[in-house]
Design brief:
With 542 residues, the chain is mainly alpha-helical. It has 3 domains: 77-245; 253-389; 415-542, no CATH class. The protein has 19 helices and 5 strands. The chain has helices at residues 16-21, 33-37, 48-55, 75-92, 99-111, 113-131, 150-167, 174-191, 194-214, 226-244, 257-262, 274-294, 308-335, 351-377, 393-416, 434-444, 448-458, 473-488, 528-537; strands spanning 427-429, 466-468, 471-472, 494-496, 502-504. Strand 2 (466-468) and strand 3 form a beta hairpin. The protein is globular, with a radius of gyration of 26 Å. This is Zn(2)-C6 fungal-type domain-containing protein. It holds the Pfam family Zn_clus. GO terms for molecular function: DNA binding; DNA-binding transcription factor activity, RNA polymerase II-specific; zinc ion binding.
């Protein structure tokens, strides 16, 4: 009696020669030993990850799946992993180095079931986010919460339990836990729970910091390409969480203690490339946030009572940001980038160069808005004397001009970078900064025209139902609207006198409520994280 053939999964990772001959490949590298023994020339192996990602179709409906490796589990799991390869990875990698999401994490997914199942859960939740009907106007209070499917929530809970079991093993690796930390951060951001998202992020940041101190996850010495890219992502998200919640101090300290003690500049003499420019700005932002949080105890005190060291550090930070802006201008001129118009194919820019230009434009927006915010906090300081000076009409005009420029660049970015559409589309990116920039401009401006333009941008079809990391466009628009209504009902405003003390704003001198700055509305915070927490504890009808 003939024995039944044992069923085995088809191997798709063999060399081209063995595939064409329909024989099993031994997958020896760099050439197949089976071909060598048979006297044949081995044609080599496909670039499994990048090749599959390039050819994977980007359709919403999945009829077939094509993933880089054989995956255990159900057909639904394999389809979701295909969905990750074709849509989620490219969405998360928007306007940044794509290799982390499209290659490196997928490689860990091949060998680590914990990472693979976390990606499957993320894909299911992302699919819920994409397929959910955008909320209508009268549902804005719930716009920041996603009603996920029971299957997605079950997958997330299962992934959490699997990670807990993995971490109890003696051979548990830090990189697996860090990858899962970022994935869970994204999952909670998609669900609209920013507080829980930051909790997952903070746990990952603490682990990253501990691993760096022990030398197990050092971006400067590791040969693993995942380490510097994942480290950079954590540094970006650490700063993003601080912009979302300005009461939060960064977990990471990116400036070594000697630099902080000596008050030395952390900006180099030149920018080498776009990635280098991004790393410098992250380092500057990290230092600024540490400085602002440490100096909050002096808020409202006259300038004469402030420590001289605090004043000097504030002025040095402003100078560093100014120097960085000058270097960014030089770099842009050197590579031919412009903020006036997008590069054209006729000008010698291929598609990769256009993507790099988009990345530069978003970096420019992020820098310019951040520079304005720190400069606004420092306009009372005199660089030469360190004594208070009254805000002049020229200073106020410069701030207004800065805000208008921020909004113009953001408006251009929405037109040039985001997909052109006439119907609202739900998209999720990780670090474009567009929603945050528009929100802060709308909150800080005293111009009704500028504020109206900010609302128009948040209502743009390409942006109105989007999320970027922790930032949700509809939530930002909702709270800006609520702040504006509060002002129109008769706010109490605050401003700074020449002594630095807070005093009541002379409301009789203001003719139009729309010209009042939302940021000066006493009793209302432009801290979006705080506003969301308050609204959930004490929901009130408008």
């Amino acid at each position: 009696m003939a024995r039944a053939r044992i069923s085995k999964p088809k191997v798709r990772s063999g060399c081209f020669t063995c595939k064409s001959r329909r024989v099993k490949c031994d997958e020896a590298k760099p050439v197949c030993l089976r071909c060598i023994r048979a006297g044949r020339e081995c044609a080599g192996y496909p670039d499994s990850l990048s090749y599959r990602l390039q050819v994977a179709p980007a359709n919403d409906s999945i009829s077939t799946y094509n993933i880089p490796f054989k995956v255990p589990g159900s057909q639904a799991d394999r389809q979701l992993l295909h969905y990750y390869c074709s849509q989620v990875a490219l969405s998360l990698a928007s306007y940044s180095d794509p290799s982390l999401w499209t290659e490196l994490i997928l490689q860990r997914c091949h060998h680590q079931p914990v990472v693979r199942n976390a990606l499957v859960a993320l894909s299911s939740l992302h699919k819920d986010f994409q397929c959910e009907a955008p909320p209508v106007v009268d549902e804005l209070k719930r716009a920041h919460r996603l009603v996920a499917s029971p299957a997605s929530l079950t997958m997330i809970a299962k992934s959490h339990r699997q990670l807990a079991r993995y971490l109890s093993r003696p051979d548990a690796s830090a990189d697996v836990a860090l990858i899962c930390s970022v994935i869970y951060f994204i999952c909670e951001a998609l669900l609209g729970d920013s507080q829980q998202a930051i909790w997952h992020l903070d746990r990952g940041l603490v682990l990253l910091k501990r691993s760096q101190l022990s030398g197990n996850f050092d971006a400067t010495s590791s040969d693993d390409p995942l380490v510097p890219r994942l480290t950079s992502l954590f540094e970006q998200l650490d700063c993003q969480a601080c912009t979302f919640d300005d009461q939060r101090a960064p977990i990471l300290v990116l400036s070594p203690p000697p630099e902080l003690n000596d008050r030395a500049s952390i900006v180099p003499e030149q920018i080498l490339d776009l990635g280098h420019a991004e790393l410098i700005l992250i380092k500057l932002q990290n230092r600024v946030f540490h400085h602002l949080v440490s100096s909050v105890i002096f808020k409202g005190k006259p300038l004469k009572d402030l420590p001289q060291s605090l004043i000097q550090e504030r002025l040095l930070l402003v100078a560093d940001l100014q120097h960085y802006g000058d270097l960014l201008d030089v770099f842009a001129e050197w590579v031919g980038y412009s903020t006036e118009s997008p590069p054209s194919h006729s000008g010698g820019f291929d598609e990769r160069s256009r993507q790099q230009w988009k990345r530069y434009l978003l970096l420019r927006i992020n820098y310019h808005t951040f520079y304005h915010l720190i400069k606004d906090c420092s306009m009372d300081f005199s660089l030469n004397t360190g004594v208070p000076s009254a805000p002049t009409s020229e200073m106020i005009a410069n701030i207004k001009s800065d805000l208008e420029m921020d909004l113009k660049i953001a408006s251009d970015a929405v037109s040039w970078i985001l997909p052109r559409t006439t119907t609202p589309q739900r998209t999720y990116t990780l670090s474009s900064h567009l929603i945050a920039v528009i929100y802060f401009v709308g909150a800080k401006t005293t111009s009704a025209t500028t504020r109206h333009k900010a609302f128009e941008l948040l209502a743009h079809p390409s942006l109105s139902h989007s999320r970027d990391g922790l930032w949700d466009a509809q939530t930002a628009s909702f709270f800006l609207t609520k702040m504006t209504r509060k002002i129109r009902r008769g706010p109490t405003l605050i401003s700074l006198t020449t002594s630095g003390m807070q005093s009541k704003y002379d409301e009789s001198s203001v003719q139009h409520p729309d010209q009042l700055p939302i940021a000066n509305c006493k009793g209302w915070s432009i801290n979006l994280a705080l506003s969301i927490r308050r609204s959930r504890r004490c929901p009130r009808p408008d």
